[in-house]
Structure formats: structure tokens, C-alpha cells
């Protein structure tokens, strides 16, 4: 990682309080050139904590932008960090994002006010860009829909779409399990942390009490509103006519939100370019596997300079979509660098991609035995999905799905013969299945795998369909047992090259825990291979002939923040599966990233988290999920020591989900606040 010194411009950093129209003040940190000449402003605005949680990440990029001629600004949303007000999780807030992302009316109004305030500063030219990762990217796009006059460009990395995203696209209306309670516990802990007395003085304690008394577990908002209600449609991946700013949409094939990048290229009327690498849910310069990392800051500088400084940097001469074509690899839970190559397509949908149809009874064949009426039964054990890997990979050692042969054995598989020549896919595969369901409710999970000559099975992409969404994605329609219908299912978009001699495998299962909550009826379904088709988006093998090669600079960042990593108090495996043979129960325990560190200003930050999932192979109603999180902040020099502990647990019966949530706040080891919630939500709402 290069840390250029000196930068083109010397810089200065200052903390500010940005006033909002209602008198609320937001905590902001600004890095800008030391110059009397105004410069454009870049804004990263999100519900987080710039003083501790995002400090390392902020230090990598915001000073770099300032050193290249921009005022780079990081702002905490209302009620977070040392900003005034109550967080988005306060009881009574209108439904928006259920995990505290800035999507509600108040949060959008705040963001627009911040943009206007920045544009009016004497050190700003009046032109503003928005940037963000994940929820920050989604919030930037939502603000861009209002077309604020000062906004000229957006860089959105791994944007999440809609209130239940990223599951709303590939989970086909099914209720996610792997991320729901864990995100709720994490978001509740984040919202419950107090302001820093270094920023707000002695007022921090009464403001903390006010936050604690106001917030509610965000999982309530998710389960109280149907997955396919008006709020979901309002926030879903629809065409965005209000966006006039130029958008650079960035994603990773290892991130669940990569389809949003393709959606933006296809649907936006504003100038847009897409970039998708092999990356997880991270900025592409951070070097977390799978790589390769790229000089992302340099790439975004070209974008900012073109749209905010009127310099012709050649960004519009780039292909509409630049992406990494993954090569076939043996299955592994992590790759330092994923083998592949950069490709470019001049539009999306790409003129070099065509649909190729594979009949399940001809081009693909199954080892299952069809019944006399040609239907193949699919009835998977409930722990099918235990080798699915994390819902949102972030670059860990157990980040990607392992060899899928165990999962394939719990599924019904349709295999091609050995491929006579390579097949490269780019985009979203689709399935049309003729099904006969044994129950009123159910689900179909589909996995596309690359099977090597030695039998190793590498997951390429997947998708899920809740069968109650088979007729109308906007409402629940139960299946009439025994009836036959055609259903359509879309898998997550991917770029993958199947080599000659390998096989394409389509694996179908009736369960996929813990990605999605199982349905009460475990009877499975039957599929008619003769009336079912897999459609692959196949890219022409000669599509790159004559094209200029695509390359990027080596990663470059500002000097790292001098944070001292401390030894964790406990060490757990990142991902551990236990099979209790006598009980027939499968348990999965996940450490999503615990650790402790000391910041240069003396702040000690500790975070410990564990997620647990359990199910019996024969009982869908035995499923249970729990997440525990502890966050501690300490400033030894002033005796400030605060801890927040949260827990979110979900269980189910045939008609309801039951949530049990707990919040405890401690000051100096003494309990300051404690609250427990227990709620029941009808399954009909999900």
C-alpha cells in the first residue's frame, strides 16, 4: 500500500458542528487543503461513529482526498456518535430502513441540509460529491434522488437496496435468518452508545440516558411490516428518475449487493459507470480477500475531477461496466487473490451476452429417480445450507462457502456433461421450474456450482424463492397442495468462467438454513425436469478481441492511523459447525469480528460478538437464532468507562416468530440502564 508523501496539497483537519434547521447539530470531521482557493466538497454521511468505529477507515481516504484538492467531510447522522438528537431507531419513527440506515424522511432532510451547508461554506466551490460503503452508499443514492442543486457526482460502493436488502433480490420474498437478528443486535448496540465527553463535555450522560430510553430493537420494524408491502416497493430497486448526478456504482462478486450495480447501469438516466471486482463487502483498495485490490482512490479521483472540477479525465471513455471475470478455482473459504481478468462491456444488458437455455431433462441430468409422472421429489434435511458461508463476507478466513459436495448430497442435482469448451457467464442466471408442492408454504433454494473432474464442487451463485411469492411478488399467496404451477427464480448475478472438462451443476433444495427461515411445512416439493429450464447469461468468448486491456493503479491511501491492536480476551473460531448426532441437531457459531484496540488519542475500544444458529434436521420449527454483542469504550485519563450489551434472539412456531431482545448499559461496571423486549409477530407478515 503506497502512502504518498508529500501530497499535492498540504492539509488541515478540524471537527465541526453542522447546524440543521431545527437547531440539531451534527458532529463532522473535515479534511481540506490549506489554501484560500475554494474547493469542491466530498461528503460521507451515515449513522455511525467517526470518533471510534470508522476512524481507521476514515483516516485512509479522507486525508488522501484533501491532499488532492477536496474538502473531504465525514458526518455522523442524527443521534449517532457525538451528534445531537435521537437515532433512527427511536420508537415511533416512520418505517424506513429497519437497521438505522438513513432512509427515513427526517434522515433524508438532514442529509440534504448538510449538502446545502457544505455548498455555502467559503472554502467550498458550491459543488458537492457523495460517497459511501454499504448503507452509506444506499443513503447517498437516496439523497441523490432529491437532486439537490449542489450535488454533481456520487460514488456508491456495495450499495444496499431497499428496506430488507440485500435479501430482497436473491431471496425471493423469503425471510433472511443469517443477517436479521445479528444486524439488529449490532444496530441496537451502535445506537445505544453514548456521545464522547471529549466532544460534548459533561452533557454526555443525560444525552446518553435519553438515547437509551428512546430506542427500540430494529428487528421489530422488519417483522412488523410485510416483506412485500408498500414500504418495500418504495425503497426497492426501482428506476430512479430523480437522480441527475453522475454515479460511479461499485460492487464485489463476493458481496450480496452486487446486483444493485447492474440495476443502476440499466435503469439510470443520469451518467453512470459500473465497476465490479472479486471483492467482499469492503472498499476495493483495502486488500481484504478475495483480491486483487486496486488503486480505488485514484480511480474515484478521476470521477470527482471530471464532474466536480470539469476536467476531462477520460472516465466517459471507459466501458459502461468493468468487471472481474472469475476463473474456476478449487473450493476454499478464502482466496488472497481470485484468479481472473478484467473485462469491459459497453452497455448493460451487454450486447455480448446472450441467453442460453438448458433443459433439466436434456442438457442437465439428475441422479434422482423421477416418478411415473416425471416429477422428481425434493425434500431436503433442514440443515441444508449449513455450508452456505457468511451472508455478507467481509474478508475473513472463513468468508466463502467451502466445498459444496455435502450440500449437493442434501439436494437434488442436475449436471451437464463435461463441457467441450469454456463457458463464461456474466449476469443473473434464471430458472423456470414446473413444481408440485406438497404443502401450502415452502421454498426453493437453487445453487449453481462448478464441478471439477475430481468431483470438487465450487459455489458460483445462488437464489431462493418463497413459494408464497410465486404468483405475485407483492403479496402472500399460499400454494394449493397437489397443484402444479410454473415458478420463476433469479439467481444472484456473477461473472464466472467454467473451463472445458468441468460440469455445470444446478442443485435444488427445499431448505437453506441459516440463510432463510424454514417454512412450517417440511414436505418439500416435486420438480418436473421436462418442463423446467435453466437460463444462463453466456458471454461471447471473443467479446474482448481487439479491446484495450483494462488495468488499475496499485492501491494508494493516506498514512494509517496509529491504532494499537490488543489481544482479544477470548479467541473463537471464525465459523464452527457442530453436529449433535444423538439429538439430530446442527449448530453453527460465528464470530463476526471481535477485537480490542487503543486509538492514538487514548481511547480504548473493545467489541465482542457471537452469532449462533441451531436446527434439527427433521424439524423446521426447531430453528433458533441468537446474537450477542458487547461494546466497551474507555478514556482512562478522565475515568470514562462505558459498556453496551445487546442480545437478539428469534424462535418460531407454525404461526408466529418470537423475538427476545435485551439491552444493558453500564458506566464504570455499574448498570445504568436495562430493558428487555419480547414480541410475537405473525408469519403472515413475512
TrEMBL record:
SMART domains: PepX_C (SM00939)
Residues covered by the Xaa-Pro dipeptidyl-peptidase C-terminal domain: 301-550
Coiled coil: none
Pfam families in UniProt: Peptidase_S15, PepX_C
One Gene Ontology term of the molecular function aspect: hydrolase activity
Bias-annotated ranges (Low complexity): 92-105
Record keywords, A-Z: Hydrolase
Region of interest (Disordered), ranges: 85-105, 369-408
Protein name: CocE/NonD family hydrolase
Organism name: Kitasatospora cinereorecta
Amino acid at each position: 500500500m503506497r502512502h504518498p508523501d508529500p501530497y499535492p496539497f498540504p492539509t488541515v483537519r478540524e471537527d465541526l458542528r453542522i447546524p440543521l434547521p431545527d437547531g440539531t447539530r451534527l458532529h463532522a470531521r473535515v479534511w481540506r487543503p490549506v489554501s484560500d482557493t475554494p474547493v469542491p466538497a466530498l461528503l460521507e454521511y451515515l449513522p455511525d461513529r467517526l470518533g471510534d468505529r470508522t476512524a481507521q477507515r476514515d483516516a485512509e481516504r479522507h486525508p488522501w482526498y484533501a491532499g488532492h484538492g477536496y474538502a473531504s467531510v465525514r458526518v455522523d447522522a442524527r443521534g449517532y456518535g457525538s451528534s445531537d438528537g435521537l437515532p433512527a431507531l427511536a420508537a415511533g419513527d416512520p418505517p424506513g430502513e429497519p437497521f438505522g440506515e438513513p432512509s427515513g424522511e427526517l434522515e433524508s432532510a438532514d442529509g440534504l441540509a448538510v449538502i446545502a451547508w457544505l455548498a455555502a461554506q467559503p472554502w467550498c466551490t458550491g459543488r458537492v460529491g457523495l460517497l459511501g460503503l454499504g448503507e452509506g452508499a444506499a443513503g447517498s443514492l437516496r439523497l441523490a434522488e432529491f437532486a439537490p442543486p449542489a450535488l454533481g457526482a456520487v460514488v456508491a460502493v456495495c450499495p444496499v437496496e431497499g428496506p430488507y436488502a440485500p435479501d430482497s433480490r436473491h431471496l425471493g420474498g423469503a425471510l433472511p435468518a443469517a443477517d436479521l437478528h445479528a444486524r439488529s443486535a449490532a444496530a441496537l448496540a451502535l445506537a445505544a452508545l453514548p456521545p464522547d465527553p471529549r466532544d460534548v463535555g459533561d452533557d454526555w450522560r443525560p444525552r446518553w440516558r435519553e438515547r437509551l430510553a428512546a430506542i427500540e430493537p430494529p428487528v421489530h420494524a422488519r417483522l412488523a411490516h410485510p416483506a412485500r408491502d408498500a414500504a418495500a416497493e418504495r425503497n426497492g430497486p426501482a428506476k430512479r428518475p430523480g437522480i441527475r448526478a453522475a454515479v460511479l456504482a461499485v460492487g464485489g462478486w463476493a458481496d450480496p449487493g452486487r446486483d444493485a450495480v447492474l440495476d443502476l447501469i440499466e435503469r439510470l438516466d443520469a451518467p453512470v459507470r459500473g465497476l465490479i471486482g472479486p471483492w467482499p463487502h469492503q472498499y476495493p483498495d483495502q486488500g481484504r480477500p478475495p483480491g486483487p485490490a486496486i488503486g480505488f482512490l485514484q480511480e474515484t479521483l478521476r470521477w470527482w475531477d471530471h464532474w466536480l472540477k470539469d476536467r476531462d479525465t477520460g472516465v466517459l471513455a471507459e466501458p459502461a461496466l468493468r468487471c472481474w471475470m472469475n476463473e474456476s478455482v478449487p473450493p476454499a473459504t478464502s482466496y488472497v487473490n481470485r484468479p481472473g481478468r478484467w473485462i469491459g462491456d459497453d452497455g448493460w444488458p451487454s450486447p455480448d451476452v446472450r441467453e442460453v437455455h438448458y433443459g433439466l431433462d436434456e442438457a442437465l441430468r439428475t441422479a434422482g429417480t423421477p416418478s411415473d409422472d416425471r416429477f422428481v421429489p425434493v425434500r431436503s434435511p433442514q440443515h441444508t445450507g449449513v455450508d452456505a458461508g457468511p451472508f455478507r463476507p467481509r474478508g475473513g478466513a472463513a468468508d466463502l462457502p467451502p466445498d459444496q459436495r455435502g450440500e449437493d448430497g442434501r439436494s437434488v442435482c442436475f449436471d451437464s456433461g463435461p463441457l467441450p469448451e469454456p463457458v463464461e457467464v456474466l449476469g443473473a442466471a434464471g430458472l423456470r421450474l414446473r413444481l408440485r408442492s406438497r404443502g401450502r408454504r415452502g421454498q426453493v433454494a437453487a445453487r449453481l456450482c462448478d464441478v471439477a473432474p475430481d468431483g470438487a464442487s465450487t459455489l458460483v451463485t445462488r437464489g431462493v424463492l418463497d413459494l408464497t411469492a410465486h404468483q405475485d411478488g407483492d403479496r402472500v399467496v399460499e400454494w394449493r397442495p397437489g397443484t402444479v404451477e410454473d415458478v420463476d427464480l433469479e439467481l444472484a448475478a456473477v461473472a464466472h468462467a467454467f473451463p472445458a472438462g468441468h460440469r455445470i451443476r444446478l442443485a435444488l433444495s427445499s431448505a437453506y438454513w441459516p440463510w432463510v427461515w424454514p417454512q412450517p411445512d417440511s414436505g418439500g416439493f416435486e420438480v418436473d425436469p421436462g418442463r423446467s429450464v435453466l437460463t444462463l447469461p453466456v458471454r461471447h468468448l471473443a467479446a474482448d478481441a481487439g479491446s484495450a486491456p483494462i488495468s488499475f493503479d496499485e492501491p494508494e491511501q493516506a498514512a494509517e492511523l496509529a491504532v494499537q491492536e490488543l489481544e482479544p480476551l477470548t479467541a473463537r473460531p471464525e465459523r464452527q459447525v457442530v453436529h449433535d448426532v444423538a439429538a439430530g441437531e446442527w449448530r453453527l457459531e460465528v464470530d463476526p469480528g471481535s477485537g480490542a484496540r487503543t486509538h492514538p488519542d487514548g481511547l480504548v475500544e473493545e467489541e465482542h460478538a457471537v452469532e449462533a444458529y441451531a436446527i434439527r434436521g427433521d424439524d423446521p420449527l426447531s430453528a433458533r437464532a441468537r446474537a450477542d454483542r458487547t461494546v466497551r469504550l474507555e478514556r482512562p485519563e478522565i475515568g470514562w468507562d462505558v459498556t453496551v450489551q445487546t442480545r437478539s434472539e428469534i424462535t418460531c412456531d407454525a404461526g408466529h416468530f418470537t423475538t427476545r431482545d435485551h439491552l444493558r448499559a453500564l458506566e464504570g461496571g455499574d448498570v445504568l440502564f436495562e430493558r428487555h423486549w419480547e414480541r410475537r409477530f405473525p408469519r403472515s407478515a413475512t
